[in-house]
Each structure stands twice: as C-alpha cells, then as structure tokens.
Write a structure and sequence with these properties.
445 residues; 7 helices; disordered N terminus
Length: 445
Amino acid sequence: MIKRKKIKSFFPIVLYILSLVLLFSTFFMFPVSPVLATESDSNSSYTSVIEDLGKDETFNVESYPIDIENHSLELFQVAEGQDKELFVYVYQPSAKYLATSINISTAINDSLFYQNYALELISQSDALYKYKVVDFEVKEDALRYYDISSIFRDYDETIDGPVAGDNTVSEVSYNVGKLWTAATVNGQITYTCLETETIEITDKYVGLCRYLNGFWLYSDSCDSHFVAFSTDRPIDKLMEADLLYIAEIGSGSLATGRFTVDSTEERYITLEASEVVSNEVSGLFGQKYTWNRIESAADFLAKEDLTDEAKSNLQNKQWVLRFAETAYTEYNGLYNPHYDATRVSDVTILRLKFETEGQVYNLGVVDNKQTGDFLPDNNQDWLTDILKPILYVIGLIVLVLLLIVCWPIVSVVLKFLAKVVVWLLKGLWWLITAPFSIFKDKGGK
C-alpha cells in the first residue's frame, strides 16, 4: 500500500516534466520562420493585391514562392487608380522587408528625369505586395509613361554588408529597368511593358573638401560636396548626371559636437561636364580654388591635397561628381563656440549620360542612398585654421595699445606730416598757377 501511494503522488510531477520536455523539444526541432501575414490589408479602402492580380487569368500565385534567404525586390506590374493614384506590385521572396521608395520618370528618351517617391504599403499576401506611390498624380495624357529604374528597401548590415570608409547607407536599391506605357482608349486602360537599360553603381564614396574663404572675426569656408563612384559599364566620357540629396541646414557645437537641424530640404540637381565652379574668397588669408563639376577620379586625386584615408577610400573609383557647395562658418569665441553648416545626406545618383566607343547612352541609375561622415577629406592647415585668426585678433589689440601708449609721439609725427602735406599742396598750387601769373604781369605792362 505504501508503494502504491508513492507512485500515485509522483505521477503528476512526472507528467508535468514530460510536458515541458515535449514543449521544448517541439520548439527546438522546428526552426522559427519570419512572421508572415498570409494576407493583410494595410488600407481596407483599396482592393487587395490578390484581388488585383487575380484579374489576369494567366496569373499564378505559385510562381511567387517564399524564399527567406532572398531579400531582393522584383517590381513586376503597375496600375493606375481611379483617383489618379499609381500602384506598384512587388515580389519580395523573403517577405521580411518593406519597399521604401522608387525612382520613376514620366518622360522618356532624352527628356528622362527621375524622381524618388516614397511607397505606402496597401496590401500583402505572403511574398506579394501592393504599394501606393506617395504624392504621385497620374497625368491626363492619352499616353502615360512610367520609366522605372530602381526600387529601394531599408539597409541591413547583417545582409548587405559593411559600407566602405566612414560612410553610411540608409536604403539599398534593386534594378527594375522597365518602361510601362498606359493608354486610355474609349475609357479602357491598357498597359504595355518594355525592358530598358540601366547602369549600376558598384562602388561609391561620399565626401567633402573644405576650402578657406577667409577670416574676419570668424572663419568662413566653402564645403564642396562630392561623390566618387564606379559602375558596371565602361564610360569613356561622362557628359551629364542627375543627383538627389538631402540638405540639413543648422548649427553645431564645437564643445559637444552636437548638430542641431533647423530645416531640411530635398534637392535635385543636374550636372554638366562643361561646368567649372569656385569658392568665394573673402576676408583675410582666403585662397581661390576651382574645380569641374564632373571629372575623373584620377584627376581629382592629382589636384586635391587629400588625407591618406580619403585616398584609400577613392582607390578604384572611376568618376567624381562635385555636386554641391555649402557655407561653413566657424565662431571660435570663448562664449558658445559653434559653427553654421549644411550637412548633406542620402546622396543617390539618378541618371547618367555618357559616351562609350562612340555611342551615347542616357540611362537610369541603380544606386543606394549614401551619406558621408561630414568631415573634410582634404588636409586642413592647422596653422591657418587656428593660429591665424588668433594672431589677427592679437595684432588688432596690440595695434590699439600701441596707439594709446605712443599717442604723444604719434601726434607730433602726424602734425609734422600734416605740415609737410600742406607745404606740398602749396608747392603744387604754385606750380599750377605760376604760368598764369607771369602772363598776367606781361599783359599788365
């Protein structure tokens, strides 16, 4: 009887332990997959991705399987909405990252002009995604063009790898290279799609050169922002380039290093190889520098006094675009030492026009959004940057003190000089009027 009671008392404990073992063994035997919404709609006012794609009788959802190791984006369809909205349909095998933005030109051929638009998720079904192009309005034209060069997602270092130098990347791009034409006939919209050529940036570095404009009671400089890069295609002559970057205008503390942004601007710019730019010299000790908007990396390295680190970062780059100039003003006073500057970030190249073997190409670019470290890549003269303004101020103070101390002597010298000037002016006046006096005397006789 005693043995039976012991067995009975231990039975619940054994059962509990077996349950825990079963639970943990089940957890570790089956790897955890990414959380996938079989089908979800972020905005119920729109039709779902499956509902839209299902209108095509040839569409087969099994052609778009989940592959958790593949983090690419494949844009395979576009559609216009009733309210002049534009939607894009993307196959994302890993079903993990959302697309963030897209480069679209509504003009074609020589008029290509890509703009970067944000994307808003509308609907998802496993690896299929439907996005709305934010702040995009469909034109009223009978024929409407959507030349799409690339699509972006957020950067992930564990997947995309480290960035060269001290640069950072916010979004990585994937090639699309497709031109959709939408035609409205009798109220019905039809779409055609053609493959297009693109050029991909394979190696890139964003930086700046700082040139001293001159000193007053502060240091005034010019920041020349550049991007150095290589591509997957040979380029004999680079003729034009379109870029997009973010300008953050503000001020930074020289004591703490903290930068406060007052305003942010999104800036598009077109560069031409014929453009030559220079800094604006002002104040004391300033020196004029000139540079080309577009130049080879070899020429850039030969002309600029770069740091060793910058030279290393520019190795194997083919071209350099000097795309923007901004003011950098430094106040080194005892109270609140600070600087005013414009920080440039998320630099991406949108279009390149170039010549190779006599053939001219005008292509959309596949390029990440990349940011430099905001520090000059050219050597800075510490004597110029630190000692000269100090010596300038000290010189002014010494001059004032000398004038005060030596004023008795200075006053005597000034009086003597004043008498000399008066004597010289009288002599000059006599020389001028003497001939007239002689003729007057002769006339009187």
